[in-house]
Design a protein that fits this description.
Arc Repressor Mutant, subunit A, 2 domains, Four Helix Bundle (Hemerythrin (Met), subunit A), mainly alpha, 11 helices
Length: about 240
């Protein structure tokens, strides 16, 4: 593992990247103990505080864990998809909030992924996941529900749909698309949307899932996508018009 002290990048960031690359390549394996801070400082020819900062970066990414005691130190973590969800959500949120992609492009990608997931969910969803979707539909219909609460319920509904596919790779990919994108979609469209329309579409999706009707699930998600994109266009058009 090497770094280039002549590069402008932060030395701790370079060290973290070097260790990360070693983990990804298999040079460092799961549960393997990393060299001590002093050993890493000597290896990279930097100070121990610089190494410590690099290890903090890796711990924040759940790539390593630290243990205290005589047999302690920093160890390569066994990363799960669940552990990586928060990073995926954070990254997606940043990309969207910085207008790296348009709302329409993000919406298209999100629903394309969710429709692929929904086909599997039609075959694999559990009774508990269907019950969660039904409970969220009931919650969404409650009088006085705040926009924030409606948004959270919307996320929970689609999260249950995604998890019903019982495919951790798809769940990971959709974590950013649903849990980062759905609140943004709601924030953009909440002034124009009809809760009744969304609840109706959610109900159609849940009913089709219960019947195992793959085509109807797909069709309902397509209608929800078209409705969401139309809302966003209507909101944008209204903003462009002079008061």
């Amino acid at each position: 593992m090497k770094i280039d002290p002549r590069k402008p990048a932060d030395l701790s960031a370079q060290i973290a990247q070097a260790i990360r690359d070693a983990i990804v390549s298999g040079e460092l394996i799961v549960d393997e103990r990393l060299p001590s801070e002093a050993e890493l400082a000597d290896q990279f020819e930097v100070s121990r505080p610089t190494v410590r900062e690099a290890l903090k970066r890796l711990a924040a990414q759940s790539l390593i864990r630290t243990q205290r005691g005589a047999t302690g130190g920093a160890f390569v973590n066994r990363l799960s998809f669940e552990d990586a969800y928060s990073q995926q959500i954070t990254t997606s949120t940043l990309l969207l909030s910085m207008n790296t992609v348009s709302f329409d492009t993000a919406c298209e990608a999100r629903y394309a992924l969710e429709r692929a997931c929904a086909r599997l969910s039609s075959e694999r969803r559990t009774a508990d996941q269907l019950a969660t979707m039904r409970a969220e539909i009931f919650r969404q219909a409650q009088p006085g529900l705040t926009d924030e609460a409606f948004c959270a319920s919307d996320v929970a509904f689609h999260r249950a749909l995604v998890d019903g596919a019982r495919n951790p790779v798809l769940s990971y990919q959709l974590a950013g698309a649903v849990e980062a994108m759905q609140p943004l979609m709601n924030m953009i469209t909440f002034t124009a949307r009809s809760r009744e329309e969304i609840i109706s579409l959610h109900t159609q999706i849940a009913d089709a899932l219960e019947r195992g009707d793959v085509e109807e699930v797909d069709d309902s998600l397509l209608r929800l996508e078209k409705y969401t994109r139309k809302l966003a266009r209507d909101v944008a058009e209204k903003k462009r018009k002079p008061a």
